[in-house]
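sanity check both lines:
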Amino acid sequence: MEETLKLVLTVAVLITAAKSAGYLSTRAGQPAVLGELLIGVILGPSLLNILGWAPFHSEHLPETIRQFAEIGVILLMFIAGLEIELDELLRAGKTSTFAGVMGVALPLASGLLVALLFGYSFSRALFVGIILTATSVSISAQTLLELGELRSRPGIALLGAAVVDDVLVILILSLFLALSSGGGGPAQILLILLQMTLYLAGAIIIGNWLIPRLTRWVVRRRISQGLTALAIVITLLLSWSAEALGHVAMITGAFIAGVLFGRTPYKERIEHGIEPITYGLFVPIFFINIGLQANLRVLDSSTLLFALIIVIVAVLSKIIGCGFGALLSGMPRRDSFLVGLGMVSRGEVGLIVATVGIINGVIGNEVYATAVLMVLATTLLTPLLLKWAFSSAPASKAVPTPQTPSPDVE
């Protein structure tokens, strides 16, 4: 019972802190997500370490909060998918592919080179580059939702590029682990690639056929919040199957679910049903949890210079790599720049890759701390950069949509 009481109190405090910080951030003319991220840093081990205080301290509480946060990012990416038309996403395929590929290649090479210059072994330096390839589009998606720009041409392109990025990063990570452990090698990588391809194609084809029929069936029945429950169940199943069966990130499955439900006539009803629990409970915990996981105190003077250079390289390599890739595809220069900015954040994906590295003994604590600082810095910078870039001049719109306030901004 005591564990439950601590969880209840912690969730209440975190939501209050996140919403208050988000409100203050909007009053200062910044996206709400920026305040939610900053308050997480303040409450985390870098400063106050609230989860270490007696009323909140519990052995299992941090993991429970992390799981709440994972559900939050799943629901957030589902809502982002609802806002996107599948036809628009397919039209951005060339741009997304170019931006995704270049947005992986340049950070990988840059991180490898910087780590080698600082004396790291080739294996460890290569993994630093792999950490830099990650992208968490959830931060950008929330910011673009607040700005009313998610369905702009750069918004749609960066969502597609994030899917390409996700596939490439998992392939590279799998290849690295397979070769470093003497595992299956190329055969294993080909199998993973086949699983990814089959999953993505199967999820879209089967989902596009099944979801409209399921929604019509549920609507005809008198089930309390049946449509909302169906959307949540399908989203969770696609998120689970994405990682368990398809070897792609959970957020990719959630995004696919959102796109497919967005094609049904019940899109607005689903939004109205799922947004309150998403923005009232899970998403605030997701954003604040990023700060709660960051412990910048472990960085000392010997690693601080390396960490700062990695942060700079992480920002510039995504902007230049993704932006140049979008430019090569024929996208206008300004829109290409916006795509690059939107791909800067590493978020929870960067943390996952870094955690895989430390669990497998590929990197040490100092590289992991550097990765956490890089994730935190890029995650905090992305909303600021996007707000500045979109406010300085309007982006090209894919589909004219009126700007609506985010559920986080009242």
Remarks:
- The mean pLDDT is 86.
- The chain has one domain: 2-53+66-392.
- The chain is about 75% helix and 0% strand.
- The CA atoms of residues 175 and 186 lie 8 Å apart.
